[in-house]
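Capsule polysaccharide biosynthesis protein
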Amino acid sequence: MGKILWVCKESFTSLTNFCIPYFNEYKNEAIFIHPTESLLRDTTFVNFKKNNNDIKIHTLDKIAHVYSDNISDKLSKESTNKLQGFEEKYCKKVDWGTLLMSSQIFTTPYHYRYFFKDLTDEEKNYWVLLLFEYMENLVKTSKPDFIFDFDNSEIGRSVLWLVADFFNIPYITIEHTRYNGYLIPNFNLGRKVDDFFIEKFLSIKKADSSFETEVISYRNKSEIANKDYKNNKTLKKNNNSLFKDLKRLGTYEISAIKKMKSKIRFLKSNFRFPFIAHFPSIFFFFLEMVLRERYLLSSLNPFFKNPVEGEKYIYFPLHLVPESSTLIKAPFYPNEESVIAFISKALPLGWKLYIKEHGAMIGERPLKFYKKISRLSNVEFIKLDAHSDPKSWILKSQGVITLTGTSAFESVMLGKPAIVLGTVPFEMINGITKCKSLLALPGIIKKEFVGVSKIDNFESCAKYLQIINEIGEIVEFTFLHNSCYNSLLFKTDLCDKARNQIVKMVEVLKKGVNLSS
């Protein structure tokens, strides 16, 4: 049947672990796309290796040691020439600077995780040089027929995708459609909507009546929040008990100490690899994060306000940063602070920008972030519990602006306009406007938001639902991800529900194989 190369990283390794047995007709190999997991003998790596001792597992350990031994302030002429050759050969779909945005370790100026050091161009480029050399050799020698993945963030993934694309090897990952848990296969790491998807959308003249009924049902719901969000912190609104937070902090700090010990044990003090979180910086980061979270979710928070009834506003929910929704899907807008400042200048008279913080980011951003933005007179941070569900936030707004967030999909499904700044799988639905330059934003707001209370996009929404039903599967992704991760960590069996979800995840990958043929 051929060979599959599975891409592993951290908790997503667990999904690979439980999906591999469903592809026994193939020869399977795996690659750990970030070296710290294997260098530090993380539990995910060790347990995956034990569970899959019959497959070949590739790691980046060797090139990490080469990097540590040879990194210097200036690249040699030979290395520079090699880089130029790789850029010319492989970077047809992604510019070099955009490629370097693929990793949180390369984008420290845009996020708040100060336990990673700022890197020079030479440090970044030398690692990417080693990655291209490694991935090119891997693809040529391993010769996979397919590459399977469950995530899209990290520079190693992007390099492997570019090399695979050059050699016409389908790189299949999953795309979250934002509707009812549907996952679909994607062949571009989520950097663009696949051509086959656009063609299918355009080929449908009129959606089946059942999907029109689904749109009506969605608009009549009292609550539209994805139920799977209950399995993570996306919709977090209130503080945990003090005991629970102390326990959580203890878990964070013990993990940080264990990684420090692993570094000393396996890598010694002379190992100059900057992609491992710095200790004790990571220790203090977690302490500050938990303390800030408790403060921001308390009545002492001076930044988050109640909405003003009847006030005209644009809804701008913040993202989890750093993550693929910004670094991969909206690489030119990794800093939401600058985007907010620009939107504030583009608002019509009397309008406000209402900002909702992401539940998982509470505590991670420094307080000065909220203080600085709160000085903008037409911008307000709104209390997280001001509305019980996204539907209320959206229907009372003039429209939604987001980088790549689910709120844009929710908005058009409710018949309200939305502006996105990055790539989203639903961007062809009427009512979604993709803003390719912030300079165009004032005009788009006037055209799409001012005087527009409702948009006629019923048929367009139904067509989108029809396509994702055809090529996708409903998967409770966060539940499945958490279940598989815990099972891999603690060597326990999956529950029946998780096993059923794995079967659906496998179907998404198999549909990707069929679409690629």
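thats it. Residues 242-296 form one domain. The longest helix spans residues 242-267. bye
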